[in-house]
Design brief:
Number of helices: 9
Protein name: DUF5686 family protein
Organism: Kaistella montana
Strand content: 35-45%
Oligomer: single chain
Radius of gyration: 31 Å
Pfam family, one: DUF5686
Length: about 850
């Protein structure tokens, strides 16, 4: 999230970035396909003790939910077109057996199943795997076990020591999923046929995939709990599969995965809350069944299977492996249902393994996650992208009293040269060896990068992602998404621009644009140069200048940045005429740095000349020393503090992308205007504060909050005043008031609150017919209160025209429907807005409809 950006462009840039990042991964679908081969397994099942043939054995292939075969004799034969890599054999009163075929023979197998004396809880006989209904949850034997789990709810054991350290090995793979032989025949794959030699079937549903990206990283984490909690995660080594833009791809892939604690009541995937099967409210969301008893890594465990109570819920199905002795969760599996209502996501699968050092804590041991994603539809065989991540934690050490120097953060990126290690290093440091198909990914991607056709495909994706066309590996032309605009003053507007661009991590950048309005027949321009001279602290200096038509008052907490696109030229369709535009000449010099991570200090010095761009219909005239003036000359400095704890970024250059997280945003600004310095007309002080945060409310959805407050301590004219932001377009624009006109409310002092809650379809999923549409409901409330002094009114020529919402809190409310579209491409949202008060004003809108595109999961 960029803090000081025009609100409209902030939405557009985030939308475009999220969309293109997903498209960039999915474009690998164009690289190839693989014809599914038929696989056959056969053999017999006998009792391991007496050799007696066994019938009634359920055989599950590739971890599917339903058995592929229920044997009627000891012999079995299963044929699959999609490949078989595992088979699970289950029979009541026998230990579950799992066969892995990746390095074994397939036919004429002889399987011996071990009999087992299954323990009972409260003398209740264990049921089989078929789901059994209970009138009361207390009658369910699984409930007794889960109660013991809740009583002994574990916490991460790292908090129990003065200091700790551990090693983390991570590998991430991206592969194309469900590509068939017909797709392979398309002309686009000419010269790329070799990639099909690398297909495998390693994901949890055992669908054949084509790996196209692989990344390995080794981390070392150091932490201390006393005298205060501090932790530092260092990158020790990193290995890419070879793409020229691999750092951005790796960072994008990493951001799709969240850290999960199975003991939490809510699990976060894609910043959406899913109820945890091990949470204390689990029986409100899931059906549980005590299915079996088995050994996991030498620990005797109860096996509890669970399913969501309703298929339409955002919930999981899977298994909990719970120690019989200590009732800790040794292992868990979570798999999304086939009807998962998350955009671009067809499936989620996760396995968690824990070590338990005592009866109160756990330590993460291994996490394996798969995310199956597709742009257009949710069919099980739809073509898409498969993200796979494995994390293995090892080498735990406690109370070593290490030096505080290990806790000093380092500004590291995955592409740093010192992180490149030899093959011998990786052979030694990998916690588990690579599979053969994983080793081949490095070779395949290096081959791909030498193919001109593949380079052209990547080039096209990069243009869509950035909006710029690169030339000579030095200059970007664009932004192509800002070429056309329209407003009532300029009419149709054309804008062209360029910037320097040698790499995503450039430490300096020069950019500029020129624009022409066909109605006012005037040229506009903007240019800015920035240089980051210290990468560790992100110390940056910049200077810019522009002369353009702008919509002032489109947001409260704005900045003095030069290159942001004006809201005046961003809205093609307006709900009513917009004549209140300003002509602004601006020069800005700034310096910023981050003394600590995600905490930025910024200082600006700016000069402005502001006048009406439409004097016949919009008046900015004001009085100074008894004289009427039409243009404000302003010189001011701004001191800003900006914090985003927990924010994540993809690069370290002067420009960087912020990934979507649940991190809060805090902004505190102090602005001082100087009279008679650089022709400044007014001496004034302004203080502003902003707080914004998305909050997951369990499985009830996500709330977005935005609170702003500010005060002008001196009298200033309308051009420098606080404007409660309206929205006279049909588009959704964050943190504006949908039914306010521009300049309808002006305030010396103000507070605003925007509340928006996304239910993620929880309510509509109960409606029999509507639930099939998978729409999601949104409710919102917006309020503003402010005051405007008589002096601030009287300084303006039209002194009776402007007022503040000081009689009562102005408010709007309404609801929206999102997730409108088809398949997985459901990005349309429609809002229905009602104005709550101040209805007696002339030409007010009491009701309005806004719509827009949003790239949310």
């Amino acid at each position: 999230m960029q803090l000081y950006v025009d609100e409209f462009m902030k939405r557009n840039s985030q939308f475009r970035y999220r969309f293109i990042q997903k498209t960039k991964i999915l474009v690998f679908l164009l690289l190839g396909t693989f014809a599914f081969s038929q696989t056959k397994i056969s053999g017999s099942v006998v009792d391991a003790v007496n050799g007696k043939p066994l019938s009634g054995v359920e055989i599950f292939i590739n971890n599917k939910e339903k058995p592929e075969l229920l044997t009627t004799s000891s012999n079995f034969t299963i044929v699959s077109d999609s490949g078989i890599t595992t088979a699970t054999f289950i029979k009541k009163n026998y230990k579950t057996e799992v066969l892995n075929f990746s390095n074994a023979r397939f036919e004429n197998l002889s399987l011996k199943m071990q009999p087992e004396n299954v323990a009972q809880i409260q003398e209740v006989v264990l049921s089989g795997i078929n789901k059994k209904k209970f009138k009361n949850k207390k009658d369910n034997p699984a409930y007794a076990i889960m109660q013991e789990v809740w009583k002994r709810k574990r916490t991460n054991g790292l908090a129990n020591y003065n200091d700790y350290q551990f090693k983390e090995y991570e590998k991430i793979e991206i592969g194309l999923n469900n590509i068939d032989s017909a797709f392979m025949q398309k002309k686009i794959f000419n010269q790329l046929e070799f990639v099909f030699d690398y297909a495998d079937s390693a994901n949890y549903d055992k669908k054949l995939t084509l790996p196209v990206f692989f990344n390995e990283t080794i981390f070392k984490t150091y932490g201390k709990n006393t005298p205060e909690k501090r932790e530092n995660k260092l990158i020790i080594a990193n290995k890419f599969s070879g793409f020229s833009n691999n750092e951005l791809i790796a960072a994008t892939a990493k951001n799709q995965f969240k850290d999960v604690n199975i003991y939490d009541n809510t699990l976060n995937f894609f910043n959406i809350g899913f109820p945890s099967p091990a949470g204390t409210d689990g029986f409100s969301n899931y059906e549980y069944e005590l299915a079996d008893s088995l050994s996991v890594n030498g620990t005797e465990c109860f096996l509890i299977k669970y399913l969501p109570k309703r298929k339409e819920m955002l919930a999981f199905q899977g298994s909990l492996y719970i120690s019989k002795d200590t009732y800790n969760i040794v292992k868990s599996t979570q798999k999304s249902t086939n009807k998962i209502n998350v955009n671009f996501v067809n499936g989620i699968y996760m396995e968690l393994e824990y070590d338990t050092s005592n009866d109160e804590v756990f330590l993460p041991k291994k996490t394996y996650t798969e995310l199956e994603m597709s742009i257009f539809n949710k069919k099980k065989d739809s073509k898409g992208v498969l993200f796979k991540r494995t994390d293995i934690y090892s080498d735990y050490l406690f109370n070593q009293n290490f030096s505080d120097s290990f806790l000093m953060p380092k500004d590291q990126t995955l592409s740093d040269e010192n992180l490149t290690k030899t093959d011998e290093f990786w052979e030694k440091e990998r916690v588990e060896p690579l599979e053969e198909d994983e080793k081949k990914v490095y070779t395949m991607v290096n081959q791909l990068e030498s193919v001109p056709k593949f380079k052209r495909i990547v080039k096209t994706v990069e243009i869509l992602q950035s909006g710029y066309i690169n030339a000579w590996k030095a200059i970007d032309f664009g932004d192509v998404f800002s070429v056309y605009g329209h407003n009532d003053v300029e009419g149709d507007r054309i804008r062209v621009g360029a910037r320097t661009y040698f790499s995503p991590n450039d430490l300096w950048r020069i950019e500029g644009y020129s624009a022409y309005g066909f109605k006012d027949k005037k040229w506009k321009y903007g240019a800015e140069a920035r240089y980051m001279f210290n990468r560790e602290s992100r110390s940056t200096i910049g200077f810019g200048s522009r002369n353009d038509v702008m919509q002032l008052g489109a947001q409260l907490t704005n900045d003095d940045g030069i290159m942001t696109r004006s809201f005046a030229s961003s809205s093609v369709f307006s709900s009513g005429s917009n004549i209140s535009l300003s002509s602004v000449k601006q020069n800005n010099l700034f310096f910023s740095f981050e003394p600590i991570k995600n905490f930025q200090v910024r200082m600006d010095a700016s000069t402005q000349q502001i006048k009406s761009a439409n004097p016949a219909q919009f008046n900015l005239d004001f009085y100074k020393n008894g004289m009427l003036k039409s243009e404000v000359n302003d010189f001011h400095t701004t001191f800003s503090l900006m914090a985003q704890p927990g924010a994540k970024y993809s690069q370290y250059g002067v420009d960087r992308y912020a990934f979507t997280t649940l991190s809060p945003t805090f902004v505190l600004k102090f602005t001082h205007g100087f009279e008679n310095v650089l022709n400044g007309d007014f001496d004034y002080n302004k203080l502003q504060f902003l707080y914004a945060q998305p909050i997951i409310l369990g499985n009830f959805g996500r709330t977005n909050l935005n609170f702003e407050a500010g005060k002008n301590f001196n009298t200033v004219p309308l051009a420098l005043q606080n404007i409660i932001p309206g929205n006279q377009s049909y588009s959704l624009v964050s943190n504006t008031f949908a039914l306010l006109k521009y300049y309808e409310f002006v305030a010396d002092a103000y507070t605003t609150l925007h509340f928006e809650h996304h239910f993620q379809g929880k309510i509509l999923s109960y409606l029999p017919l509507i639930k099939k549409l998978k729409l999601r409901e949104v409710i919102f409330w917006r309020g503003a209160y402010g005051t405007l002094s008589d002096a601030s009114k009287n300084i303006n020529f039209e002194n009776q025209k402007y007022s503040a919402p000081d009689q009562q809190i102005y408010y709007e409310y309404g609801f929206g429907l999102e997730n409108i579209g088809f398949g997985n491409l459901k990005i349309l949202r429609v809002d229905f807005n009602w104005r709550g008060n101040y209805l007696d004003r002339p030409d007010v809108s009491k009701f309005g409809v806004k719509f827009g595109l949003q790239m949310n999961f």
